[in-house]
Amino acid sequence: VQLQASGGGLVQAGGSLRLSCAASGRIISIKNVGWYRQAPGKERELVAGISESGSTNYVDSVKGRFTISRDNAKNTVYLQMNSLKPEDTAVYYCNALVLAGTHADNYWGQGTQVTVSS
Question: What is the pLDDT of residue 31?
Fold first, then answer.
């Protein structure tokens, strides 16, 4: 199983980006998925999460601006980021609990850079 994160880039403050996290391999089902970010000199933090049933949760700093969603048919989870701020600048990673075979394992994507200029 592999997770491929994409969609990062350079955007001005107030702009938008949509990140994608696509899972591939012998997947039976994808359980919980989270988007994390890590800024230079800071710890990695959970930004948004979505359960297999579609329940979502967000860190307070992105509530009302970011939306996490999933397309189970495509094994893909998205993070729509609107009204971006310079403090959103970080490497964004996706993490997923994937059932592939007889048990579920945790997987990380490779990270995608998001840079928001002021």
Answer: 96
Please tell me the predicted confidence (pLDDT) of residue 73: 95
Paired tokens of 82: 């609107």
Structure letter (DSSP) for residue 44:
-
Cβ–Cβ < 8 Å for 3, 96: yes
pLDDT at 102: 87
Which pLDDT value is given to residue 103? 87
What token pair was written down for 21?
Answer: 């996290």
User: Which residues of the chain are modeled with pLDDT < 70?
Assistant: none
Q: Contact, 18 vs 12, CB < 8 A? A: no
Closest CA relative to residue 107, chosen from 25, 20, 8: 25
By residue count, the chain amounts to 118
Residue 37 is predicted with a pLDDT of 98
CA 3/CA 13 separation, integer angstroms:
28
Closest by CA to 104, choosing from 69, 35, 52, is 52
| 62, 43 contact by CB (below 8 A) | no
